[in-house]
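Comment thread on ticket #2218

A.B. wrote:
> Attaching the input chain for the structure job we discussed in standup.
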Amino acid sequence: MSALPLTGRCLCGAVRFGVTTPPLSAGYCHCTRCQRRTGTAASAQARLPEGALRIVAGEEEIRTWQPEQGFAKQFCGRCGSALFSHDPERRHWAVRLGALDPGHGIRPTYRQRLESACDWEPIPDDGLDRFPGRAPAND
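C.D. wrote:
> Ran it. Output below, let me know if you need it in another format.
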């Protein structure tokens, strides 16, 4: 991983943020909600401990969608970029790896929610840990 703090932003640059501590973990989520949110077969994200995420610009542009079940999803209200999700029970955040600036060096170590994986994109034989449901918390 690169030196801290890591930086990131949305597509239009209205929302900018920093990550001040190393992530707890990083992985791919293959759940149907992530597929629909991203338009891809999986979402790459890093779990962050509480207090590790700092919004440095554009906090007023962040919008939240709270599904009936699951974590709140946060995105830029101007460009729609998926940025974060929040797990209030475990008190950690997830940042979308694609929202971090290039060179962050975070590498996913697992794939979760394989029961929902798309049949149109086979899961690669990449040696990552695999979980049929949610990956165990490590916080």
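A.B. wrote:
> Thanks. Noting for the ticket: The longest helix spans residues 32-38.
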